[in-house]
Design goal:
The protein has about 250 residues and is of the alpha/beta class. The chain is built from eleven helices and seven strands. The protein folds into two domains: about 100 residues, Spore Coat Polysaccharide Biosynthesis Protein SpsA, Chain A (Alpha-Beta Complex), CATH 3.90.550; about 150 residues, no CATH class. It is about 40% helix and about 15% strand. Strands 3-2-1-4-6-5-7 form a seven-stranded mixed β-sheet, with helices on both faces. Strand 1, helix 2 and strand 2 form a beta-alpha-beta unit.
């Protein structure tokens, strides 16, 4: 039996889903850092390329080298973070699933904090809104983030501080619900968290520390982006009844 067969036959403790879009400058370092960390158990890393115009797709395939503790899946989706995350969730096998970024914005502060929780909640969010987070961001970003949080609370009734941080979720719950999550872009995680809140899932936000590689810079959000976010939140509110009911195993498998 080959190494790949041995690793794939073992239960997967954690699936790490990483959307990669024009990620050629950061992907190799990110994969290397994960491999340096993952030295026990069985973890799968799922790289989902979505609409890149550089060498990201070829690079992702080149970097995907299984070892005794890590197996890789490399695939593609339609452009959009939500499309990439949904594709990765469908492929995942882990007891827990981490939805994270291609450039490790918080190093491993979010993962370290989540590992200290006992028992593990249904959802852990690496939250920029946590009072102990160290996030030195440009004032424009703070204003936009605060405004979005308040609007989300008003429209959806959400009590979560940051619905767009890194997410570590119960794998079974996530795969069962992913058929409901159809947002193609940045609202995907907001939709996920909204469904979790409606279903009474236990959600814990943990602090994060912004990596020194992520220096403060102005927000690139345009008025049209803010408008789209507002319309998207109203669209989510109309789906409250649907998102509040967890699909059956039969529905999820369909």
């Amino acid at each position: 039996m080959h190494l790949n067969d041995l690793t794939r036959s073992r239960a997967v403790g954690l699936s790490i889903v990483i959307p990669v879009h024009n990620s050629a400058t950061v992907l190799a370092r990110t994969v290397e850092r994960w491999l340096d960390r993952l030295t026990s158990g069985h973890t799968e890393i799922i790289l989902v390329e979505n609409g890149s115009t550089d060498i990201t797709w070829a690079l992702a395939q080149e970097l995907a080298r299984d070892n005794a503790h890590v197996t890789f899946q490399v695939t593609q989706s339609e452009k959009g973070m939500g499309n990439a995350l949904r594709t990765g969730i469908h492929l995942s096998q882990g007891e827990r699933v981490l939805l994270t970024a291609d450039d490790l914005p918080f190093d491993f502060a979010d993962v370290d904090a989540a590992e200290q929780l006992d028992p593990q909640p249904d959802i852990v969010i690496g939250s920029k809104a946590h009072p102990s987070s160290e996030v030195n961001r440009h004032v424009h970003r703070h204003v936009y983030t605060y405004g979005y949080r308040m609007f989300r609370r008003t429209v959806l009734g959400s009590r979560v501080g940051d619905s767009q941080g890194t997410i570590i979720a119960d794998g079974e719950w996530l795969r069962r619900n992913v058929s409901h999550f159809d947002e193609p872009g940045f609202l995907f995680t907001t939709q996920l968290i909204f469904a979790a809140e409606l279903q009474g899932a236990r959600i814990v936000e943990v602090p994060v520390v912004l990596s020194v590689d992520h220096s403060p810079k102005p927000s690139s959000v345009r008025f049209s982006d803010a408008w789209d976010m507002g319309v998207g939140l109203l669209r989510l509110r109309r789906r409250r009844a649907e998102l509040s009911v967890q699909p059956s195993a039969v529905e999820a498998a369909a």
